[in-house]
Amino acid sequence: MCRLMSKKTTIKDVAKLAGVSTASVSQVLNGNANSFHKDTVARIIAAKESLNYTPNYFAQKMTKKSSQMIGVLVPDISNPFFSTLVSGIEDVLYKNGYITILSNVGFEAEKEKKHIEEFGRREVDGFVVASSATSKVEAAAQLNKEGKPYVLLDHETVYANGDAISVDSYGGGELAGRHLQELGHRDVVIVAPVNPSATIQNRISGFLRVFPNCKNDIIYTDLSPEGGRIAAAEVVKTAATAIFAINDELAIGLSSGLSELGKSVPADYSLIGYDNIAMGNYIKPKLTTIAQPITELGERTASMLLSRIANPTKDPEHIILPVKLIKKDSTAPLN
């Protein structure tokens, strides 16, 4: 049986039912209800709901001069750090009427550039760039060209034309080193990714302030639990008694890999990670780590961008959030 499709409800239908002009309906539904009597607003809202009317996105965008969309670029959404970060960003944006558009750019410079361009073509109202495929200098240059507000996330350098927020990565690395030093360890190794980002390089530099002779004792692997598991075979070839894993995912993989090789944490190796992701509480032993305020970082990043959108001419802002040592069960005094 053939059936005619029902006619889509238009703004004219809402105006007719409410007994007002289409201009009045447009104004009320686009946030200017304060300009009308409350009874008029009530009739328009009632008519909209009665007719199940949904405003046309593109028409609404032209009226508001805003897309109410924010482009967010991250390198790896499967990493618990970035999924928690995006959750914090999205929560604040949603509460302020914005929709988050997420791009998982990996570590591909060309992909990052392309997605910034595509977000610009779709006229997002702003950008959050947490990826590290290109240097933050290059990213800032491209974002300045797009002419939209942006926040560069997790980097320690101030950029003249943009805002930036980060955590104290150097201080975090130093904290990890001090903790192992206080436990009596002298022979240590660092497990880090190939081609580390500037943020990770800062963690390493902070650790090397405590253990300067460790600069030649860095084991490079993939930035993943599997990368950590594979790196365990290299760790046992060294004289190390302690390991600084550059993030918790690596540390979790190391713990598993060492166990497979008949080694025990912390009896044979003290192990400290970085990030304080939830999974660190569900392995045995629980992971000692450097905690980043991940949710707060996401929330403050979003708030920073919204402030820039509201006040585009204010001076650039740069915020550095502190980190802290979380002592659990994977580190112990050297016997």
UniProtKB/TrEMBL annotation:
SUPFAM superfamilies: lambda repressor-like DNA-binding domains, Periplasmic binding protein-like I. The keyword Cell membrane does not apply. InterPro entries: HTH_LacI, LacI/GalR-like_sensor, Lambda_DNA-bd_dom_sf, Peripla_BP_I. NCBIfam families: lactose_RbsR (NF047341). It comes from Vagococcus coleopterorum. GO terms for molecular function: DNA-binding transcription factor activity; transcription cis-regulatory region binding. This is LacI family transcriptional regulator. Residues 9-64 form the HTH lacI-type domain. It holds the Pfam family LacI. Keywords: DNA-binding, Repressor, Transcription, Transcription regulation.
